[in-house]
Amino acid sequence: MGMLVGFGFIGILVYWLLGCVDRPHLTDRTNRKSSIQYRKSNIVIPMSSPVILITGAASGIGRAFAASLHDQNYQLVLTDINETALNDAFNNGQSGAHLKSLDVTSSNSWKEAVTDTLSRFGRIDFLFNIAGVIMPGHVYETPLENIDLHFDVNVKGVLIGMRLVSEVMVSQGSGHIVNIASLAGIAPVPGISLYSASKFAVRGYSLATATELREKGVYVTVVCPGLVDTPMLDLQLNHDEAAITFSNGPALSSEHVAEQLNKVMQTRPLEVCIPNGTLPKMTNAFPRLNGWLKKIMEKRGRKAMAKLKQNGKTK
């Protein structure tokens, strides 16, 4: 009996380590066969022009994702705290999207954005919480204000947005919230510990609220990308503390992540890792691996950083 339990545990662990499975929520009352069929088919979204609210749309993943939706049949509300960059990116709204300044750390700014969206379109079908910040640094030398910065933007920004938009979606009886976390929210990453902690919070909150909202007809997906070629990558290049971030192969393109987000809109999985997140899950399951691998990963990361700088990737 003990052996059977042991093999069962090992099987579950291997299944988990192989990556975040792109599947419908586990709370869906479907068997495995119907789940596979569900993944392969397109879900019919109950609107001729679904309304999508995106934060952090002026650059990086947010900009690439918004651009990927441009020729599709969506009503886009694109937001960012940097209104100038947002207008420059989307031609002052002439692209057909509605552009809106949004400070995700402010509940009043969120309320205004949600109210404005509802007054224009009458509903919100998708919320993509993409806005985020990172400031590398070791715990013993990190400026105190960076603590507030990470948790105000990366965590409170998501929580406030979810609180207000989920209320709208519950009243509609449908909706889908997608939160961008990180592989650093699965495995703790030394050198970017504040960012890692904030993304752990985003992932945990997403998984918890997914269960609360599913019974109300609202889906929640948490997406955990690795290193992505965005302005956040450029910033980290100037910080040796962030070396481990660069240790896991080439950076993903924003366009690749945007492509995955388009798929997420159709399949509505609970969690997606890009790439599959096997190593982060191993260090999550066995925390001591972090200490054992630190020197090796830092060495690999520094080599990758030097190569990027050699190739002119410095800003």
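Next protein, fold it too.
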Amino acid sequence: MAENIERPGAQEWVPQGAGVDALREAAPACRGCELWEPATQVVFSAGNPSAPVALVGEQPGDQEDLRGIPFVGPAGQLLQRAMEEAGLAREDVYVTNAVKHFRFAPRGKRRIHATPEAAHVTACKPWLVAELAAVAPRVVVCLGATAVRSLLGTQVKVMRDRGTPMVRETSTGTTTFLVTAHPSSVLRVPDDARDAAYAALVADLAVVADLAAGRAPEAVAPAPPAPAPAQEQLAAQEELPVGGAGS
């Protein structure tokens, strides 16, 4: 018999019209899906609540779950380095995730990352919508397929559409979106392709830096394409579970 899991959605716990601080204070009480129970804590957001750029990832990873801060694990460290190389200042960025609790499968003493289901993304979306309304960023960056599906739907694909600004009408007005790979995917490509995958991430973030500064993106030479096996692996990660690097 299939397990009856309650996922009423987060809307009951999201204070209407609240700022980021009030949203963060309210989030630990959320019971919008079952992920709150095995997780250590809710992992809400970090960064400037008035930033011109919002980076949206998938979900917290193991280290983020333990520390309560997004993007502090290996993928987050790589992202910070890429931001610096792209000229995207930390003070210009607000970081969050599409899902606020760590979904994992226990394996002995380890907790193995498990990709959130569509139902988890849907349940948690009221938090993300409220955050973006409060921050009102000029540019929203979707890091990986889960963030893309939450905010842009299934018609947008990471590897096909990455690096190209997309203007969309939202509940808070006109917003520019940009899609790129999740930094954890860069960590998982083969060693001989990692430099190219990292360069592509930096190139996408350089476009974001220009948009955040109110400049049209510079006409720069594209980053060197990753070798075929790496491109295939990155494309496959739009459909397959993401590994243990987390946000």
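About the second fold: Confidence is low (pLDDT under 50) at residues 218-245.
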